[in-house]
Amino acid sequence: MYCNYCGKVIQDDANLCAYCGRRVGAVAARKSLSRPRTGRRIAGVCAGMAEYFDLDVTLIRVVWLLAVIFGGCGLLAYFVGWIVMPNENEALPVPYPAGAASSDRTS
Ligand SMILES: [Zn+2]
């Protein structure tokens, strides 16, 4: 593959460009931490985590359940995730270009 920054050929599995040192692999594979609308059990936090970390959702649920039972903070972490993780495909607030919002023409 090619580095997005300097355009040189680099290793396919490289995370950093050997020439300019920029991070390349993670940028291409970057996923957003969100709660999928399908496959959720409660709020989709575990499903979102599984998708983000590319792990089995059942494994996440088991580990999370153990954290809830034994750690106590698992439940809190779930609610935090519920609150902070956006729904998948939810229209994200698009930052308006300067002046576009104020010059809203109503004719
Ligand atoms: Zn480069």
Explained architecture:
- This protein has 107 residues and is mainly α.
- The protein folds into 2 domains: 1-30; 32-90, no CATH class.
- It has helices spanning 25-28, 45-53, 57-71, 73-84.
- The termini are far apart.
- The model has no long low-confidence stretch (mean pLDDT 76).
- The structure holds zinc ion.
Domain module tally: 2
Shape, principal axes of CA atoms = elongated
Largest sheet: none
State the share of residues found in helices, binned by percent: 25-40%
Low-confidence stretches: none
The oligomerization state is single chain
* Average of pLDDT: 76
How far is the N terminus from the C terminus? Answer: 50 Å
Specify Rg, calculated over alpha carbons. Answer: 20 Å
Strand content: under 5%
Beta-strand segment tally: 0
Please count the helical segments. Answer: 4
- List the secondary-structure elements in sequence, H or E: HHHH
Structural class: mainly alpha
Cofactors, ions and other ligands in the entry: zinc ion
Layout of SSEs?
Blueprint: H1 25-28, H2 45-53, H3 57-71, H4 73-84
The structure holds zinc ion.
List keywords for this structure.
single chain; 107 residues; mainly alpha; 2 domains; 4 helices; 37% helix; 0% strand; elongated; binds zinc ion
Quick take:
By secondary structure, the chain is mainly α. It contains four helices and no strands.
